[in-house]
Amino acid sequence: MQEHLLLLLNLCSLALAWYACPFTDNSLNKTISGNVTIQAECTFLTSPLEWKGFNPNTFDGAFYNRTRTIPVMNIHVKRLFFSKLSPQGNSSGKHFINYWLLNGGGGSQVGMESFGISMLKQISMNNYHLTYPNTYPIMYLFQYRGAGMSTPSIHCHTARTWPDCATELINTTVPSSRDESLRVINAMSNQHIAQDLQYQVQYAMNETQSTAETSTYIYGLSQGTGIIEHYLTIQSIDSNLQIIDGVILDGVMSVKESDTGSNQFKFHNERFYMYLAKCQQDSACSKTFNAVSGSDQDIIIVTLRLQMLFLTNKTNPLCTHQVGLTDWPLFILIANQGIETVSARPITAILIARIYRCSVEDQRVLSKALPIMINLVNEYGPGTLIDPPEAYPADGSVLSIVTIWSDYIGKTLTESVKDNAEFYNDLCIRIDVSYQIYIASAGLLPLCNDTQVSKYNYVLSRDFKDILYSRNPLYWGQLQVNPRIFRPRQGGALLFNGDLDYNSPLVTAEQFQEFLRMQEIPTKLVAMKGLTHVTAPQSYTKSAGFQSPSCTEQIIAQFLYRKELNVSLSNLDDRCNSEQTLIGIDWFYQDATVNKTLYDLFGGTTTNYWGVSIDNQPDKLPTPF
Predict the structure, then answer these.
(1) What UniProt keywords are attached to this protein's entry (predicted)?
(2) Residues 6+ apart with CB under 8 A from 108
């Protein structure tokens, strides 16, 4: 059986050399401004299937890739760089900035390509590439083991439920052996992914640091922040071999304080109230909402009344049932999707007001708009788990089932979905109860739906429990940063979090900031108002719009070039982060992208999305689309 596993894990003989490779649109180079172009290179690096007994700083991947004496993972690595500042060639006298980009749920490398391109664009806009021609910024796109082009990878091609996906993984990863399948699947752990990162960071350093100054920064979003936290705890990292200048965590998932399961059914509801409060606190939004709803009550009271009308089946059916909006939970799905999407963020308040009023004009507009929105939430809601390797948007989705349910549900070692059936049953019951009593429940978890035996009785299948791995008791809840990583330099941790983030609430980032400070690690937290989970792809400014790098990227660019700019972490210019500067919630769709998004959502029926006369509009009116 061991021979079968070795054969599966080592299908390809891979040379550890960089080669020119295309971007995801198949182009070999991109022009990002004027005559500034960027290119991409790829390689495969070999990691052991299980890191136990190996040190990532000294592991000889080329040897084991050649000899095949242990089961290995061949992990795809991609890097982006300015065409005129290539990492190839003589490195003497250069300063290399190695910037590692880690995605969230599932670790898609493809999803991070746009982040790397945008950061190079920001560096170009700042003219750093011209001002500091001996500084070479390299964007490394990290891919989780098990995802994308890495081998072996785990995917479900036919399953429609999570338990069925678990069974499919076991039957297809190593078809000849259940035990060998589980050995591969269980090796797809956050801890192993962090050690893969350690190995790859060291590999990149070894290419340059003997002849050139090398600075290393690691950016992680969502689950990627948890991978960074694992990385920071690795005690085998020797400051003489590997040291980093800084980490950037965006949408902080603290494995010390947070619990994804609790967050998603508790803070989801609180986030909805916070969103409504933001409209109430904005005098123009509050005034317009009252004009549309015809009520002098605040938006929260009107929303509660609308919920009651749904629950008692007393809404005007011309604005609800007859256009497909059958109940309050369906409305909340639409509302939450609107809040999550920066270009559609005002839609939730608008819908509450117009459904509550339900005028003849509202009936006309909503008859077109609501079916579009219902189709969108059905399309992007929980459904098929088909995750073929060639489907870039889904790259890594199945992998996240293993890592999230193993490591991020429950705050303690005893609160384990894998090992504690009572905890799992209680979790589903709590979610079910919250679904019934919260104004804005996150909804029932698909896994709970799929495993419900009877009322208040949820039982996981053997296959699903088996694909999960047990938490490492030396790490979980014992987060202890290796002090040798930061101390010799003036680096630190730069944290970003939106105040409307329910996956990783702002309080989690604040707790993690305090934890790092207690360990004497320089830390800066940038809290962004009106933003949800992961700020980089949504912290656009009113002056630059959606086509330019975000405020988050503007701040990070300074952090990467802090040596050249002679700035400290605490002195980074973050003035782009203010309610006056950020688009955040564009209540009156003054940004062209927001305007266009609402126009599409309303089916082209109107450009007056609030549905009030000009006299009732705020002083600054949007330009009609």
Answers:
(1) Signal
(2) 143, 147, 148, 392, 395, 396
pLDDT-derived band at 623, boundaries 50, 70, 90:
very low
The H or E element containing residue 484 is: none
8 A C-beta contact, residue 169 and residue 409: no
- Cα–Cα dist 149/141, whole Å: 13
How far is 605 from 589, CA to CA, in rounded Å? 16
d(CA 275, CA 346): 10
Place of tokens 């660019």: 557
Half-sphere exposure of 33 (CA within 13 A, CB side): 16
Per the structure block, which two tokens stand in for 446?
A: 């698909």
Top CATH class, 18-155+190-257+481-579: alpha beta
Confidence of residue 614 (pLDDT cuts 50, 70, 90): very low
Q: What does DSSP assign to residue 394? A: G
Domain with CATH 3.40.50.1820 in the chain: 18-155+190-257+481-579
Tokens of 560: 């990467």
- In one-letter notation, the amino acid at residue 379 is E
How long a stretch of residues is the chain? Answer: 625
State if pTM tops 0.85: yes
Tokens of 311: 């629950």
pLDDT surpassing 50 at residue 625: no
Distance of CA 470 to the CA centre of its chain: 24
Q: Which residues pair with 75 in a beta bridge?
A: 45
pLDDT digits (tens, 9 = 90+) for 14-68: 335 899 999 999 999 999 988 999 999 999 999 999 998 898 888 898 899 888 8
Q: Does residue 333 contact residue 294 with C-beta atoms inside 8 Å?
A: no
Could you give the angle at the alpha carbon of 291 between the alpha carbons of 286 and 292, nearest 5°?
100
DSSP 134-163: TEEEEEEE---TTSTTSBS----SS-SSHH
Band of residue 235 on the pLDDT scale cut at 50, 70, 90: low
| 582 bridge partner residues | 541
Q: How confident is the model at residue 436 (pLDDT cuts 50, 70, 90)?
A: confident
Cα distances (angstroms) measured from residue 76 to each of 83, 153, 180, 472: 21, 11, 23, 26
Q: Give the pLDDT of residue 250.
A: 98
Q: Are 120 and 80 in contact (CB under 8 A)?
A: yes
The strand pair at 135-141 and 72-82 is best described as antiparallel
Exposure string over 209-242, b if 16+ CB within 10 A, otherwise e: beebebbbbbbbbbbbbbbbbbbbbbeebeeebb
Whole-number pLDDT of residue 393? 55
Cβ atoms of 146 and 399 within 8 Å: the answer is yes
* Cα 218 to Cα 231: distance, rounded to the nearest angstrom: 10
Question: What's the maximum distance between 2 C-alpha atoms anywhere in the chain?
Answer: 78
CB neighbour list of residue 583: distance below 8 Å, 6 or more residues apart = 342, 540, 541, 542, 545, 546, 591, 594
Write out the two tokens for 147.
């995802």
Three-state DSSP at 417 gives coil
**Residues whose CB is less than 8 angstroms from the CB of residue 8 and which lie 6 or more positions away in sequence, other chains included:** 152, 173, 174, 180, 184
